[in-house]
Design a protein that fits this description.
alpha/beta; globular; binds zinc ion
């Protein structure tokens, strides 16, 4: 059942974006943020606080790049949230993660409220097959041919990549399942939730799938925007704003038109942290039950088989 949320200020739905920082630079992302700001859409931009030393699988600027940092700080000053996407663009051992979190706090005034694991980082927390339980874990392992089984170690206390205790002390919300539907609450009505089987994460949140410009535009089509509003739902789009939104001669036209339309609707447009804080208060503290967990896992597996979301 989708919960009925009474949105603040008489708004009829909520919409925001968690921007995964993969490939982001000032050059390929700045114009998108100016555009969102002008429309009054305040969202969350994730960062890597420290420069890497290994070759990245997927690169992008870090907060040790001076111009990039100055720009990210200007976004924070304008009301965007800065989120965390691991210490840097490759795996980090415990001391490196601790340094990344400290640097994040030094730069942005507090530890991150929201985070998402970065592809391939071994310190990712409860990731790969550890996202699921029982039969759903087995199905996932078969679908992925055990490629992600016991590969991610952020929650494994004996591992040099362990940082679960730091996550619990310093990070409020961690992203887990991403669904094809625009209404994130429809698939994960209990978010943000605590999972007693995953005690190092305070609260989990879900998102809607749109990893690049084309997929994003499909998910936020006019029809879907209208349904999000009529359902009184909440959408957290998970995307990479460095992937195709800015084209050679300006922003993608379809994206411009869809965001322009959305911004004129009666939505609540706040960063992910603010939206989750509000939902947490509306729902009170919520610990997920085994049957609720099985349900959201199954929905994710179903979507994964059809559209292969994150
Ligand atoms: Zn990433």
């Amino acid at each position: 059942m989708i919960p009925t949320i009474k949105w603040p200020g008489g708004k009829s739905f909520a919409f925001t974006i968690f921007d995964d920082t993969d490939l982001s630079t000032v050059a390929n992302t700045q114009a998108i943020y100016s555009f969102l700001y002008d429309l009054g859409l305040l969202t969350t931009k994730s960062v890597w606080p420290t420069r890497g030393r290994d070759i990245p699988r997927i690169g992008g600027a870090t907060c040790e790049d001076y111009d990039y940092l100055a720009w990210v700080e200007s976004l924070q000053a304008r009301g965007f949230e800065i989120g965390y996407h691991c210490a840097t663009y490759h795996s980090s051992r415990r001391n490196e993660t601790a340094r990344g979190l400290d640097r994040f706090k030094g730069l942005f005034g507090q530890y991150p409220s929201t985070m998402a694991n970065h592809t391939g980082c071994q310190e990712s927390i409860y990731w790969g097959s550890a996202r699921l339980q029982g039969a759903n874990r087995l199905i996932y392992n078969l679908l992925t041919r055990y490629r992600h089984h016991q590969r991610y170690l952020g929650h494994v206390q004996q591992s040099e990549f362990f940082w679960g205790d730091l996550c619990r002390e310093r990070v409020r919300y961690v992203r887990n399942f991403v669904y094809a539907d625009i209404n994130t609450l429809r698939n994960c009505p209990i978010m943000p939730y605590h999972d007693p089987e995953r005690p190092f994460v305070n609260y989990w949140f879900a998102s809607s799938e749109g990893p690049n410009c084309d997929a994003f535009n499909k998910c936020v089509s006019e029809k879907n925007q209208d349904r999000l509003e009529s359902e009184g739902g909440a959408c957290i789009m998970y995307t990479h704003l460095a992937c195709g939104f800015q084209e050679q001669y300006g922003l993608n036209k379809r994206f411009r038109s869809l965001m322009g339309r959305l911004s004129k609707m009666n939505g609540w447009f706040v960063p992910v942290e603010r939206l989750l804080d509000y939902l947490l208060e509306a729902h009170n503290y919520h610990e997920i039950t085994s049957s609720q967990r099985a349900r959201i896992e199954r929905r994710w597996l179903r979507d994964k088989m059809i559209v292969g979301p994150s």
